[in-house]
Amino acid sequence: MEGILDRQKSKLKRAAKLMQILTKYGFEDFKSKLDNSNSNNNNADDSKIAQDTAFYERIRRAIEELGPTYVKFGQTLSTREDLFPTTLIKEFKKLQDNVMPGEIDLIPHLEKELEIVVADYFSEIDNTAIASASIAQTYKAKLQSGEDVILKVKRSGIKEMVSADLLLMKDIIELLTNYYSVVKEINLTHVFDAFAKNLQEELSFNNELKNIQLFARNFRDHKEIQTMQVYPKLSNDNILCISFINGVKINDKTAIQSLGLDPEKILDKCFELYLTQLLEHGFFHADPHPGNIFVTPTGKIAFIDLGAVAKMSPHDKELLEDFVVYFIYKDAPRLVNTLKKMALHVDIKDDKLLVRAFQELLDIINTHSLEELDIKALFSKFSHLLNDNNIIMPEHIYLLVKGIVLMEGIGRELSPSLNIVDKVKPYISKIATQRISLDKILKENIGTLWEMKRLLHSAPQSLTSIVDKLNNGEFKVSVNHREFERYRGQELRNNSLNRMLLIAAVLFIGACLLANIEQTAYLGISLISWILFLMSILVFIVMLIKKYKLND
User: Fold this and answer.
1) Which label site among 198, 271, 328, 360 has the fewest CB atoms less than 10 Å from its CB?
2) Distance of alpha carbon 350 from alpha carbon 348, whole angstroms
3) Which pLDDT does position 26 carry in this prediction?
4) Phi, psi (degrees; rounded to nearest 5) at 50
């Protein structure tokens, strides 16, 4: 009970803060903006566009002041160009997660959190944060064994604040969904639910530690990548100790060249590793922006910050493989069919129109190079098609689209002539080979094969038993059909009700025939007739009760 009261108290505090900031930025015209959101803006004049721009800028400034939860939600919405006006999307993209580092007395904090003596494990700790974000800030340190490490320290009170914000945001979105059709149409509730789940996972350093371990395990035999190492004894849900990655950002072409490396070859490696995550592991980095991908002095690629990842089941991964194959080879009918299988919800207005729209989209891929192909515009059109047909995809699909757009941005900086289609095609061949390989067929059908083996082993004995029973006249066939039994039972019940109805009718007719005989009478009707009338009515009532119970 105390926990619930604490959460509600925190939510009320955040609600008061929200109202204060909304009032500060003058959102009394918010309702009219929502009411007019469906109006046609094609003929909007310059003054109208300027008003909208100013309005959207105020939204962005208010979000930044509201804090990390709202900033991260805005960043999530910045990838949904199918849901919001272009001007608002531009403001969402300006949202920054960089905040001033908080003051932490690091050594006492580590000793309290980890229940250790810091000097026993660390030879050096830099008390100045090298990076600072809304959820955590990071410090560089050195272990007694000589390894350089990074200490990621969660901000005090961030979990409680985010939890309160999520509760409040959920209430607000439910209210807007109930009162405004435009909010309901864009499925904002689904977008928020996925965001809340991902943010809560990102808040857990225990979860991030497991992600790093799984990521390293997936790439354990790959020589072109440098994975991070974790130190579980020096980590908990609020502190994360990981190996330090020495390198430069993937989009820093000058720095890559200064290391004596070829930017185009580095890009090839990076793209290959990302495709491996998607199409082989089904476990991929959900936010591969340039600040999260490093190039080491030896030319290896390192993906850092694995708090946000996307995971796919084997079935999801197989559907994604199908989707990529049909996308690359421009098979619109099969592409739409695969989308239906992947989707959480589908309400397609016209299948033929949707296939035609996807065919037009796929025809754009005829120009393959990054210089000519606008990937962002391509996926924006794809998202609009989904939204127009009320197709809600699993969250990993939206994260995948976001990841590809980010990778495309990196590619534009390092090698504008990179041919994306040519990079994907070898994976398509690999997928096809794996699908028809004897090893995969055996793995997928091992259960069936085992049953066949068991059946073949017992078949001779079973056949011998059947033949012996036939020869001795003991072979019997018993048929027990559930539907037949149900109909038979219904027929018996109907017959019982019919008999009761017949008895009631006979008693009633008999009462009528004996009504005028010379006998003790009441109200001019003989006593025996009254008795028969009452008996017929009683039988009729019992029949009705029995029929009601049977129907119920």
Assistant:
1) 360
2) 6
3) 72
4) -65, -40
Beta strands (DSSP E) in 89-160 are: 122-125, 131-132, 136-143, 148-154
Residues whose CB is less than 8 angstroms from the CB of residue 514 and which lie 6 or more positions away in sequence, other chains included: 526, 528, 529, 532
Cα distance between the two ends of the chain: 41
Amino acid 36 reads N
Own/partner contacts of 242-246, CB < 8 Å, gap of 24 or more, are 242/149, 242/150, 242/152, 242/212, 243/147, 243/148, 243/149, 243/150, 244/140, 244/147, 244/148, 244/149, 244/150, 245/294, 245/296, 245/302, 245/304, 246/148, 246/296, 246/297
DSSP 366: G
Tokens of residue 64, six digits? 């930044």
The pTM score is: 0.69
Q: What would the pLDDT profile of 487-542 be if each residue is shown by its tens digit?
A: 666 666 666 666 666 666 666 666 665 556 666 666 666 667 667 667 777 766 77
Find, among 506, 480, 496, 509, the residue nearest to 547 by Cα.
496
CA atoms of 302 and 273, how far apart (whole Å): 10
Q: What is the pLDDT of residues 204-259, one digit of tens each?
A: 999 999 999 999 999 998 999 999 999 999 999 999 999 999 999 998 999 999 99
Tens digit of pLDDT for each residue in 87-124?
888 888 888 666 677 788 899 999 999 999 999 999 99
Q: What is the amino acid identity at position 235? A: S
Nearest-angstrom CA–CA distance, 215 and 276: 11
DSSP string, 254-305: HHHHHTT--HHHHHHHHHHHHHHIIIIISEEES---GGGEEE-TTS-EEE--
Rounded Cα distance, 87 and 41, in Å? 12
The rounded distance, in Å, linking the Cα atoms of 474 and 182 is 73
Which residues, 6 or more positions from 108, have their beta carbon under 8 angstroms from its beta carbon? Answer: none
Residue located via tokens 């794809």: 382
The CB density around residue 303, as the number of other CB atoms within 10 Å, is 26
Please report how many Cα atoms fall inside a 13 Å half-sphere around the Cα of residue 27, on the Cβ side: 19
Q: Which residues have C-beta within 8 Å of that of residue 265, sequence separation ≥ 6? A: 299
For the chain, give the number of residues: 552
